[in-house]
Amino acid sequence: MFETLTKAPGDKILALMGEFAADSRPTKIDLGVGVYKDEKGVTPVMSAVRKAEERMLSSEKTKTYLGIAGNKGYGEAVLELVLGDSVARDRVRIAQAPGGTGSLWVLMQLVNRARPGATVHVSAPTWANHNPIALNSGLEVATYPYFDPTTRGVKFEQMLAAIDRLGPGDVVLLHGCCHNPTGANLSEAQWDQVAASLARTGALPFIDLAYLGFGDGIEADIYGTRKILSSVPETLIAFSGSKNFGLYRERVGAAILVARNAGEAETAYSQLLNIIRGAYSQPPDHGAEIIRTILTDPALRAEWEDELATMRNRMISLRKKLSDAIRERSNSTDFDFVADHRGMFSLLGLSTEAVDRLKAGDGVYMTGDSRINVAGIPEDRVGDLAEAFLTAIG
Ligand code: PMP
């Protein structure tokens, strides 16, 4: 059987992690892998998560099946977090799914059942896994302009013009906040325009919400999603609890669908559950029960929101420190965009050669597209990094 296969391409980030681990220089810096790290360089278990787990350990009475849609209380809590009062609940359905990735997967499968071979329009660039998930689901992929390598902001006019040309049957994948890999995001006024465009053309918004709370706070980060929800008849949302709850390996996410009316929501949901049943039957519960416990307990929720704010503020402060350090050394504002970006990443816009030089010469690791994880910046090495970046672009 297997002699028919050729080797699939390896995962670039995993390869980069391997290279970093093999580098013996004590001064090496890892800005590659996409996980949050604290000032000690570790990805901690959040204290609210630990407390929720302790409660679960003492109160859990059974591990019997929960059903295809997973943990119902989790679903309700996530809807409350995401929707606010943007949309009538009878048009909304949610199924817990394994991570943001699993949520994207089942929703793309749903799109393909509704419109076989439909085109998913993704930002240029986008998260490297969007493309394969869409293609593996039988969909086509096209791109719309997004990142401007000169300003390192969003090419908004071109983006909007491209979205304006789409129509019913087209899917527009949007990063709800904290765009990966660029770090460049839409302003509220720009979200308003995108929502108005989608309402006009009838293209279907599909929102990837993997970093809620990592940008400017939960309310600010959810603005665009809610604006779209209140503007258009149908929306898909892939929610992830990997980053904001630090639950990466627990694989917790949610697939949310919003339909024109309760009847269509129920029909579409029956297809979604059918997709899940035929794929992995039911999602794992542990991470979902942690999130349910935290979101439904006022004290734990407050503790989680505080911890999330600490992570967010640390990233914002590292952004500012790096851009200040570069400005001091270069007398130029060329790197100010790092402070304007939000979320865990910034796309520096460096050439592949510059990325290679940084790695070989300075032991600074980032992905080949020159994306840095700002949470990986060691506080005491900001000056070194500023110099390394200036030399690399020099
Ligand atoms: N979407 C984006 C944009 C992401 O960056 C990620 C995580 N790297 C995900 C979705 C999915 O994350 P997970 O499956 O780990 O929840």
UniProtKB/TrEMBL annotation:
Gene3D superfamilies: Aspartate Aminotransferase, domain 1, Type I PLP-dependent aspartate aminotransferase-like (Major domain). Its cofactor is pyridoxal 5'-phosphate. Residues 301-328 form a coiled coil. InterPro entries: Aminotransferase_I/II_large, Asp_trans, PyrdxlP-dep_Trfase, PyrdxlP-dep_Trfase_major, PyrdxlP-dep_Trfase_small. It holds the Pfam family Aminotran_1_2. Keywords: Aminotransferase, Coiled coil, Pyridoxal phosphate, Transferase. Residues 27-389 form the Aminotransferase class I/classII large domain. Homodimer. Belongs to the class-I pyridoxal-phosphate-dependent aminotransferase family. This is Aromatic amino acid transaminase. It comes from Devosia honganensis.
